[in-house]
Amino acid sequence: MSSTANGKNGTWRNWGGNVSARPAREVTPASVDELAAAVRRAAEDGLRVKAVGAGHSFTSIAATDGVLIRPQLLTGIRDIDRENMTVTVEAGTPLKRLNVALAREGLSLTNMGDIMEQTVSGATSTGTHGTGRDSGSIAAQIKGLELVTADGSVLSCSEKENPEVFAASRVGLGALGIVTAITFAVEPVFLLKAREEPMPFDKVLSDFEELWAENEHFEFYWFPHTGSTNTKRNNRSAGPEKPVPQLKSWIEDEFLSNGVFQVTNWVGRAVPATIPAIARISSKALSARTYTDIPYKVFTSPRRVRFVEMEYAVPRAAVVGALRELKAMVDRSGLRVSFPVEVRTAPADDIALSTASGRDSAYIAVHMFQGTPFQRYFTAAERIFTAHEGRPHWGKIHTRDAEYFSRVYPRFGEFTALRDRLDPDRRFQNDYLRRVLGA
């Protein structure tokens, strides 16, 4: 069941291409027992262990020089409980396969992010989220977890069983054990009506509270170097279903959002001076549209243009101020930013290291095209976000450490104490966890 890493001579790389690692060995377990045995064997050999999903994190959260566990054989739905409206799914299942399988069963998650390439365990362990007034991240929809801990035992947790582990492990950063199965709350599949339309940046900011309060799911993209945004409002609908026609969908979601966008980014990378002009055209290329479809077809969209990303959660009340500062910084900096800034929200949740832990949050995500220098932009943006006690997405680029997190997460100590109990020898440690959680 061992294999070599992908790429040349055993090197593993993430999706964004900015992180690589050379594990001593790779294991692709076909069962929970095989995974537990791999953890025990790693301990005997004195090696650290990391599980890796689709590699969609931009941080080195999954990198290891020890044993790399690939969960692609641990996939599929284990159980559907229609009485309690839960679905238990193996940890390596990609979100897109879960979404399709649930839809076939007439079921759906309540909320989801805009990318569905990730595995369920990778997405939840890093706190991946969409946008929602009342519904939180993917991890906030978890009802139960199964994980293999450092001594190779299998631990189940929920609100009733090992509740202190449940409180932390839903966004566990891979630090508490290797997740092998997740039980999600689901509901009967429903329709969402999406309304996408351009709106001036200043208007979105002045009306932000209203737009947030009046819509179940509100988000917008601001195009740097312009005063333009594209807004998206998703609300439940009684129907009828009215999907985007196939050709229109291809033109807008593939040709414009991936194909032309890829080419304009190539041009921008080669000749940065062209970026503001391209941004003005791009911000006008997407016209208003409304459509009605099942949730995953509305929430998610393909992302084929590769990028690197930083995203911070700030208190919801601080988002308008932070965005004004971000725009002022970009305008005076001489930076050339070809990717839109994405803004979303989430209600407070009760997960120890969730970016929305204990506070209503808004997310500001900054991106740069893969291969362009991003440090100056991200450093300046991060300075703004941290001034608002921002909490970075665990899977996206940031420079924060344990000392900072102990200040912005009231339950940080609860998480690290649990880690001391579950992984005293730091079997699941790597450089990233050493930085963000402390030694």
TrEMBL record:
Keyword annotations of the record: Oxidoreductase
Lineage top rank: taxon: Bacteria
Source taxonomy: Bacteria, Bacillati, Actinomycetota, Actinomycetes, Kitasatosporales
Protein name: FAD-linked oxidoreductase
Keyword Oxidoreductase applies: yes
Polar residues bias (residue ranges): 1-12
FAD-binding PCMH-type domain: residues covered: 19-189
Region (Disordered): 1-26
GO cellular component: membrane
SUPFAM superfamilies (UniProt xref): FAD-binding/transporter-associated domain-like
GO MF term set: D-arabinono-1,4-lactone oxidase activity; FAD binding; L-gulono-1,4-lactone dehydrogenase activity
